[in-house]
Amino acid sequence: MAARRILLIIGGGIAAYKAIELVRLLRKSGHIVRCVLTRAGEQFVTPLTLAALSENRVYTSLFDLKDEVEMGHIQLSREADLVVVAPATADLMAKMANGIADDLATTLLLATDKPVLAAPAMNVRMWLHAATQRNVATLRGDGVTVMAPDEGEMACGEYGPGRLPEPAAIKAAIDKALTAPAILSGQPDFAPANHRPLHGRRILITAGPTHEPIDPVRYIANRSSGKQGFAIAAAAVEAGAEVLLVAGPVPLPTPPGVVRVDVETAREMATEVEAGLPVDAAIMVAAVADWRAADTSSQKIKKDSSGQVPPLALAENPDILASVAKSAQRPPLLVGFAAETNDVLTHAQAKLDRKGCDWIVANDVAADPMGGETNQVHIVSKNGVHSWDRLPKEVVARKLMEKIADELDARIPSQSD
Ligand code: CTP
Predict the structure, then answer these.
(1) Residue 68 has what pLDDT?
(2) Which of 35, 46, 249, 305 is the most exposed place for a label (fewest CB within 10 A)?
(3) 401 pLDDT exceeds 80?
């Protein structure tokens, strides 16, 4: 790849040391790197180290630019082909999302007309906080590519998403951005935020299985992987929606910009779904367990010598979709999913009536076992059936979002139109 100019903004945080390796990798590929260190970033890496590795002057404050003849802040922000923020702290992203320019880094980010790539790093709670997720959604809406943070143990001892992606992964994202500017926004067909089809819409999605405990070590579950529901959540954010994802126990990373609430049981899922209303559309992708153990034991159930098998009495779980359909806060568009093993369309039609939703997205899990990467779905509504080809789950998700956007526009014109 031809040498490119990268403006690397290094925020404060324990992960800032990884920026040193990133500079080394970028220089090794022949790129020209200019580093800007925030005041907090200076606590973790020194300008001298970065200057030595980048073989370029390092900027730390607006006063470094007082000689505007040599290099003004507008010029510094625009001479680059790509602006990279790594680590992008919660504070830095909050400022970026709100157009605050109170130091050199944020002034450059506001002044730039170049694509921006942010690699977040922060404590797991800070990453999951609704404020940060809102900021990530805003930044993506503004066309900034926000990488998903890595998941793992944090310097503070907690565990979860929030670790800075490895320098090699950031370098790969930079290479991708440099070779394909059109995908910098993270959208296949980027449009400004307020032109996105679901801009201003709030969407609730359930995904994954539920686990219904029998005793502290055993539970009832099903084979749902959560992949289709998570892909739908990601596609909804891409389409500009504000997304609440109520997820059963699955080890999938949270798509950037999605607000995720984790639950274990059907009853917890029902509570969180109710708390998430009102929304413009609810898409119930979760494979909710129909039954739970009627009695859960607080201690592990032990085998006894009699050879008698303990009875497992079941109780029916609440039907979340049917309850939402009947609630006073019923969303204008309510979509259910149905994984069937036989008579797919007949069962889907029956479910549509029984549950009181607007569409059922049905798929044949005999032909297409749960957990795969593709899906062949039929959208069943009172107007008929639309069948799509077998497609990757991400593509199904995007097509579904287009259909939902059209339907919402027909039912309730967006206030931002
Ligand atoms: N669903 C729900 N709450 C339940 C069961 C299902 O919200 N307790 C939702 C699912 O998220 C899905 C739709 O209802 O959107 C259909 O789920 P499915 O399991 O296929 O329907 P069931 O009512 O369980 O029907 P059956 O098991 O008899 O096929």
Answers:
(1) 54
(2) 305
(3) yes
- Tell me: the pLDDT tens digits for 73-105? 778 888 888 999 999 999 999 999 999 999 999
- Whether 286 is in the pocket of ligand 1, judged by its Cβ within 6 Å, is yes
Mutate to test the pocket of ligand 1, among 268, 333, 351 (most ligand atoms within 8 A of CB): 351
Per-residue pLDDT at 191 exceeds 50:
no
Ligand 1 atom closest to residue 286's alpha carbon, by position in its atom list:
11
Superfamily for domain range 5-191: Flavin prenyltransferase-like (3.40.50.1950)
**Any atom of ligand 1 within 6 Å of the Cβ of 112:** no
170 within 8 A of 119, measured Cβ to Cβ:
yes
> CA dist 346 to 67, 282, 337, 367, 396, Å?
75, 23, 14, 16, 22
156 is catalytic: yes
> Looking at ligand 1, which residue's alpha carbon is closest to its atom 21?
338
CA atoms within 13 A of residue 394's CA, in its CB half-sphere: 6
Over residues 112-147, the pLDDT tens digits come to: 888 999 999 999 999 999 999 999 999 998 889 999
Return the CATH number of 195-411, one of 3.40.50.1010, 3.40.50.2300, 3.40.50.10300, 3.90.1300.10: 3.40.50.10300
> Phi-psi category of 86—alpha, beta or left, where left has phi over 0 and alpha has psi -120 to 50?
beta
Model confidence pLDDT, tens digit, residues 268-321? 999 999 999 999 999 999 999 999 999 999 999 998 888 889 999 999 999 999
Ligand 1 contact, 336 CB (< 6 A): yes
Q: Please pick, among 52, 155, 156, 315, the residue that the annotation labels catalytic.
A: 156
Domain ranges in the chain are: 5-191, 195-411
Cβ of 284 closer than 6 Å to ligand 1, yes or no, is: yes
Tell me if domain 5-191 and domain 195-411 are identical in fold.
yes
Non-local CB neighbours of 58 within 8 Å, separated by 6+ positions: 34, 35, 36, 37, 47, 50, 51
